[in-house]
Each structure stands twice: as C-alpha cells, then as structure tokens.
Write a structure and sequence with these properties.
Shape: rod-shaped
Protein name: Preprotein translocase subunit YajC
Structural class: alpha+beta
Membrane topology: Single-pass membrane protein
Subcellular location: Cell membrane
Strand order of the largest sheet: 4-3-2-1-5
Number of helices: 3
Low-confidence stretches: none
Number of strands: 5
Mean pLDDT: 86
Order of helices and strands: HHEEEEEH
Keywords: Cell membrane, Membrane, Protein transport, Translocation, Transmembrane, Transmembrane helix, Transport
GO cellular component, one term: plasma membrane
Oligomer: single chain
C-alpha cells in the first residue's frame, strides 16, 4: 500500500504559479476600476473647478460657509460673507461653487 503512494507522480509546479498570480492580478484590476479610477476622475473635476473660480462666484467652503469671491490669487480666496465681513481662505478649502458671476449677472 505504501509502494503505490510513492509511485504517484508529483504535481507540476508550473500551474501553481499561475494559479497564485492570477487572483492577485484580478483583485488589483477590480480595485483599480472600482476605487482608484473614480477617485482620480473626481480629483480631476475638483481641480478644474478650483481652476475656473473667478471674482464674483458664489461658493461654499468645506466648513459650510457660503460667500462670494471678492479677491482670488493662486492659493488664497477672500470671501464676502455679508456686506461688511470678508474672510480669507485657502483655495483648497472651497468645496463647490453654487453659481458663477455670469449666472448672477443674467438674472
């Protein structure tokens, strides 16, 4: 009985490497298409929105503060919150624009 088990051929190791690598490649592909790629698209649209900001746009900050852009530079935005109050923010702290200067002029 022991002689039969010893006479059985050993499995080849070539197929086992492919069976180990294939699931890892599939998991990476799934993560790329479900997590990485959508995040890159979202970051690209955010950067284009921040680049398109101009004086007179109404925006909302990450903290939820609503205001109108009075001055804007490469990295600083001055928002008018009411008739008297002006606050300075980093450009990256802008969450989204609610309306642009062109839209508010046409109303």
């Amino acid at each position: 009985m022991f002689e039969l088990a010893a006479a059985a051929p050993a499995p080849s190791s070539g197929g086992s490497i492919v069976s180990l690598i294939l699931p890892l490649v599939l998991m990476f592909a799934i993560f790329y298409f479900l997590l990485i790629r959508p995040q890159q698209k979202k970051q690209k649209t955010r950067n284009s929105m921040l680049g398109a900001l101009k004086k007179g746009d109404k925006v909302v900050t990450i903290g939820g503060l609503h205001g109108t852009i009075m001055e804007i530079t490469d990295d600083i935005v001055v928002l008018r919150v009411n008739d008297v109050t002006k606050l300075t923010f980093d450009r990256n702290s802008i969450s989204h624009a609610t309306s642009s200067a062109a839209e508010s002029e046409s109303k």
